[in-house]
Amino acid sequence: MTTQSLLDKTYKIVLNRMIETGVAPHYTGIARELGVPVQDGRKALHDLVKLGIPGIWLFPDTDYISSFAPFSSLPTQYRISVDGDQKWFGQ
Question: Which residues are registered as beta bridge partners of 90?
Fold first, then answer.
């Protein structure tokens, strides 16, 4: 089982990447930022999703983050702009 500290760090990595780029990271990037092997990064991501936090889910049968509240990795009709820069989609 992934430790609470690792889950907290994983959450922060994903949310910060969504804020910075508008795109959710792949688990390989999560692993790199955590300083762990790739498979441990994948496990940390899946353990985070398994917590059942509302608004966080993977695209079915994949390791790709579809939604990380309040953001969506998939384009939606809810476009979010900051200072005229639109790089985010809302849920």
Answer: 71
Task: Give the tens place of pLDDT for each residue, 15-36.
Answer: 999 999 999 999 999 999 999 9
Angle, helices 4-21/38-50, rounded to nearest 10 degrees: 90
CATH of domain 4-90: 1.10.10
The whole-angstrom separation of Cα 36 and Cα 3 is 13
The pTM of the full predicted model, rounded to 2 decimals, is 0.89
Cα–Cα distance, 71 to 65 (Å, whole number): 10
Cβ-proximal residues to 52 (8 Å cutoff; 6+ apart), any chain: none
